[in-house]
Amino acid sequence: MAGHSKWANIKRQKARVDAVKGKVFAKMSREIIVAARSGADPAANFQLRTAIEKAKAAGIPNDNIDRAIAKGSGQLNDGNELETIRYEGYGPGGIAILIEALTDNRNRTAADLRSAFTKNGGNLGETGCVSWMFEHRGVVTITGSVDEDELLETSVEGGAEYYEMISEDEFQGAEVFTETTNLENLSQALREQGFNVTEVEFRWISSNTLEVTDPEQARSLLKLMDALDDLDDVQNVTANFDMANELVSAALV
Question: Tens digit of pLDDT for each residue in 132-184?
Fold first, then answer.
């Protein structure tokens, strides 16, 4: 089961643009809020520690981080209670799309999602319509030059299920996959061996991938994925498609 997705690579490129726009601040702050519900001490809360590391890497000020922790842990109450909801749908050509949202108004979120799907050739589905195609996994992203023999040895010792070497556009490195309960152990093992760990996250991995080869479908699909990802209430979007880099470049023009 391949864990790397074309959208994951596209999102890395998109993240640089979003960072310039400041859009990443709100989403990462919300991620911290959710993580802090399980405890405000990063040393004892792996999910919170990971969220804080991502926020700092993105340049989010410490005051924003502290405020998000306080809100998530109940120390700061502004009257807006956030809840995590998963939505599912189909993109052009029947591509399965899974969306994780964080919202204080599920009616607004559902309406925004439905509008984005409808305007871009897809449709918002019922709960369970595509989630059976995905499995939740922990993913450690390593950036830079990687000795594959050393990575294999460390991955086995760290309890990884598999890894994928990646060389695409401006990204060089690898992604290492494991059970969600083993993510902290794996990330620590890789760091201890000197690997440049740049991201630690939970990700929905599709069990089957559909190849997109039609330029018009590619354009419509990427436009839909972008529209969904840009919604304020959406935290993560994943889909079970793959397409050639040339097609991605042409579709994004």
Answer: 999 999 999 999 989 999 999 999 999 999 999 988 767 789 999 999 999 99
For position 149, what pLDDT does the model report? Answer: 95
Residues 123 and 212 placed together within one structural domain of the fold: yes
**Range of the structural domain that residue 212 is part of:** 84-132+208-243
Give yes or no: residues 128 and 217 share one domain.
yes
- Summarised one tens digit per residue, pLDDT across range 207-239 is 888 999 999 999 999 999 989 988 989 988 999
Domain count within the chain: 3
Is the CB of residue 217 less than 8 Å from the CB of residue 90? Answer: no
Alpha carbon distance 176, 182 (integer Å): 12
